[in-house]
């Protein structure tokens, strides 16, 4: 019994370590111009220079031939050192201000945070 408790604590500690990916899927509102979308993407990308816990940023547009995107057209992925770093980023005043503007331009949004895992 005690061995299992120690093992569970060790697993939880291991789970808490390591990078976390913050993924946002987006569909912009129909009335948002391509120029405005470019401006928003540049603003999102610049957060990595303004908010210390954010370590990396990548984005792209849907190019799948499977047509399973459910209307989502863009993906944004940020990398953080831990779940705590994601929480710090989410609460950061610069992120809060940007997110309010960014989310106001979206018709649909889905956010998932995950820890990359090897099989």
TrEMBL record:
The record, for PROSITE patterns, names: S_R_A_B_BARREL
GO BP annotations of the record are:
pollen tube adhesion
Top-level taxon in the UniProt lineage: Eukaryota
Q: Where is the Stress-response A/B barrel domain?
A: 20-114
Q: Which Gene3D superfamilies match?
A: 3.30.70.100
Summary of subunit composition and partner proteins = Homodimer.
Q: What is this protein called?
A: Stress-response A/B barrel domain-containing protein HS1
Could you read off the lineage of the organism from its UniProt record? Eukaryota, Viridiplantae, Streptophyta, Embryophyta, Tracheophyta
Q: Give me the gene this protein comes from.
A: LOC108807366
